[in-house]
Structures are given as structure tokens and as C-alpha cells.
Amino acid sequence: MANSDSTHTQDQANREKRLVALSSVLAAVGLTGMKLVIGLATGSLGILSEAAHSGLDLAAAAVTLLAVRISGRPASERYTYGHGKVENLSALVEALLLLVTCAWIIYEAVMRLFVRHVEVQTSLWAFIIMAASIVIDFTRSRALYRVAKKYDSQALEADALHFSTDIWSSSVVILGLGLVWLSGRLGLTWLAKADAVSALGVAGIVIYVSVQLGRRTIRALLDGVSPGLRDEVAHAVHVPGVLEVARVRVRQSGPEAFVDAALTISRDTSLEAARDIVARAEAAVRQIVPQADVVVEVQPVVAQDEDQITAVRMLAARRGLGVHSIRIYEIAGRRTIELHLEVRETLDMRAAHSQASEFEGALRKALPALGEVITHIEPVGEGSATQVATREEEQQINEALAQVLMERRLQCHPHQVRVYRVQGQLAVSFHCQFDAGAKITEAHALTELVERDLRTRLPAIRRVIIHSEPERSENAG
Question: What pLDDT does residue 477 have?
């Protein structure tokens, strides 16, 4: 459903962009024809330069129409980022066409100012056409800007910027024609040169706009971004849980934006937490660059404040080993670590000891401050799978547990009691409730006493696992 909605929105955007580009082409056709007829009739270089300018507007509008049609095509195997760059390319073509036109206008204006004399005939129609041009250009540029801003289209934005300059250039031409008309009324012959000067003014305006447009399109084609955008994105993706922003890359392809970020997180971050970090980073980017295609990569690293016990577990996990009962002591100024290392029970003594020695070496390398490493090797695996204890054994352990709790006067309400055998030896596990306000050290001390008493009464017990939990209130649940 989401994909169909997205497709419908994209189709609507492409349709609206094509319609506004087509209306721009039709308006350019009408303006070019009117200016050309009046320019030839009056001999005004200002109007002829505007006719040439409008002719380039027509070509630019046609290029824009073609560009928005192509850029709306979806990504393909060859163009994996889509066809959005066509819009940037069309804007560059517009800029180059405008510069070529300006070269001709400047050449002709210089010739009329210093080499040859051309009589300019002013008429009411010249003023009417130029005034109509201003009105049409104003309406057209507003429509283009609206759609360009709505869909972040650089081609339409370039077209809108292009046509908005026509308003100023047409105003300059009207000023030039007015001064030529005054020269005939006041007898000031030097004012007759105002038409050529106004043409230079048009050329100056167009050159400025063309250069700005060219710089923007070249920057877009080279995947440049606006100043500060990268820093803004880098700041946004530094969500809670991120240690460092390793890389941020932003590229624009027509109306589409692509953001690629690499974030470092602590290596003990869970998969669910890492996914949450990625989701929050993507959402933060889209607050800055709406509709962006965002790719966030997380790289686990050792955090500066990582607990040493966590580091031991992570190191063992990467080697496919299990560890438990990790203890770290300070002995004579040196840090000693003791742990139980779980290896496959199918290994012989030589292979098991080799794995333990390799793990100890890696541990010393990862934690240089460690002094002695004492490893207790124990087997685990399918061969150590549990077996159900006999009913007599279960009854024997339950009676012993009840006696221990009664002697210790410990109301722990044992439940989920399980009795099983591991490699022929008895094992027992159960849940024990304590006061919710009790300290964990107190609860742990009591469970150790219970474990010791059980082993004393039943030496056949290999392991005792007691899960401590707070008592539930009567209103809980």
C-alpha cells in the first residue's frame, strides 16, 4: 500500500512538472514572435536583444520540458541513482545558451555605439509589447517557482530564475526606448544611443544570472552540496548510542537527495538497539533533507568506558567460545582474571588446551593491564545435553531444599524447580523470591548459603542455579 501511494505521488509530481514546463514553452513562443516582429519594425536593438533572449528562453524551456520528462523515469540497472541529473544538465545547457546570446548582444551594441549608426523608431506598440512581456514573465516565473519549490526541481528553478530576469531586462529596454523617444522630442541626439546602452544592460543582467546558474549546476553535477549541509546532517545523525560519526556523504540528483552515513557504536550494543539507532538517525536526516534516500551503516568499536568483563565476553563470543564465572582481582598490585571457558566436549585435552591458550593470548593483547589469566576449561555441547532425573531424585532434592530453607528460615517461595542430569551428575535450578527492597549483595549471599547447604546434603549435585527475583505485590498484574 505504501509503495502504491509513493508511486501515485511521484506520478502526480511528474505530471505537474510537465504541465508547468509546457506552459512555459507556449508562453516563450508567443513572446519571441511578438518581440521579433516589433524589433524588426522599429530597428530597436534593445527589443531585438530581448527577442533573441526570448528565443533562448524558448530553447531553454524546451530543454527543461525534455529534462523533467526524462528525470521522472525510475532508476534502472544502468542508472542506479535514477535520471535526476538530467535536470542539472539542462540547467547547464541553459546557462551556456544565455552566454552565447550575450556575446552577440554585446558585439552588436558596441558596433552601434562606436562603428555604425542605426535609426531606432519608437512606437506605442514597442512599449505595449515590452509591458506585456513583463506581465507574462512575472506570471510564468511565479508558476515555475511554485512547482520547483514544491518538488525540489532544479531544472524548473533554473527556468524560473531565468525568466524572472526577463522582467528586469524588459524594464531596461523600456527605459532605453523612452530615452530614445525623448531624444527626438528634446533634440538631444546623444540620447539616441540609450537603446544600445540598454542592450548592454540586458546583457549584463543575463551574464550575471548565467554565471550564477552555471556555478550551481556544475556544483550539482559534481555532487557538491550547499555550505553547512554536511555538518548539519552529521550533527543530526549523532543520536543517543552513537560514539562517533565516521562518515557523511550527501549527493543531489535532480530533485532526489541521497545521504550515506557511517556511525560507530559500542560493540556490546544489541541488534535491537543498533536497529533503533539506525532508525532514529534516518528520521533525523529526513527532518533536514525531506524525502531523502538515506543509508546508515553502524560500525561496532571498543568504547572507552567499556567494562573489562564485557570485553572478555565479546572476545570469547567472536571465537565461538562461552565464558562464565568471570572474576577480576587485584593481587600484589597486579590484576588477575579467573574465568570458566566452555569448549566442545568432543575435543581432546590437547585441542581444548590449545583453544584456551589462544584465547588467553588474545585476552592479554586486548587488555594489556592484566597480569595473570587463570582459565578453567569445561565441556559443553550436544553430548552434555540434559537428561530427565528420576522421580526419586526429584523427591530427594525437593525434600533437601525444603529442609535447607526451613533451617535458614528463608521464605523464598521456590518455584519452577527443575531437576536434571548433566553427564551423569545431578543439577537443580529454581526461582527464589526476595523482598523487593533487599540489596542484591544480601540476596546473593543467601543464595550461596542455600547452594552450599544443598551440596553438603547431596554431594551428587553437580550444579545449582538459583534465579533471584523480587516478590510481587498483591496488586501486581
Answer: 41
Instruction: Give tens-digit pLDDT for 130-152.
Output: 777 788 778 877 887 787 777 76
- The residue behind cell 525623448 is 182
**Range of the structural domain that residue 428 is part of:** 387-470
Backbone φ, ψ for residue 79 (5° rounding): -110, 80
pLDDT digit string (tens) for 367-411?
A: 777 778 888 888 775 445 556 677 888 888 888 888 888 888 887
pTM of the model: 0.47
Q: So what's the pLDDT on residue 424?
A: 65
Question: Stretch 94-102: mean pLDDT, rounded?
Answer: 75
- Whether 477 maps to a domain, the answer reads no
53 and 27, same domain (yes or no): yes
Is residue 475 a part of any domain in this protein? no
Domain count of the fold of the chain: 4
pLDDT tens track for 191-213:
556 666 767 777 787 788 778 77
Instruction: Tell me the three-class secondary structure of the chain, residue by residue.
Output: CHHHHHHHHHHHHHHHHHHHHHHHHHHHHHHHHHHHHHHHHHCCHHHHHHHHHHHHHHHHHHHHHHHHHHHCCCCCCCCCCCCCHHHHHHHHHHHHHHHHHHHHHHHHHHHHHHCCCCCCCCCHHHHHHHHHHHHHHHHHHHHHHHHHHHHCCHHHHHHHHHHHHHHHHHHHHHHHHHHHHHHHHHCCHHHHHHHHHHHHHHHHHHHHHHHHHHHHHHHHHCCCCCCCHHHHHHHHCCCCCEEEEEEEEEEEECCEEEEEEEEEEECCCCHHHHHHHHHHHHHHHHHHCCCCEEEEEEEEECCCCCCHHHHHHHHHHHCCCEEEEEEEEEECCEEEEEEEEEEECCCCHHHHHHHHHHHHHHHHHHCCCEEEEEEEEEEECHHHCCEECCHHHHHHHHHHHHHHHHHCCCCCCCEEEEEEEECCEEEEEEEEEECCCCCHHHHHHHHHHHHHHHHHHCCCEEEEEEEEEECCCCCCC
Cell numbers for 244, please give them: 562517533
Domain CATH number, residue 33? 1.20.1510.10
Residues 189 and 260 in one domain: no
**pLDDT given for residue 304 in this prediction:** 58
Residues 406 and 312 in one domain: no
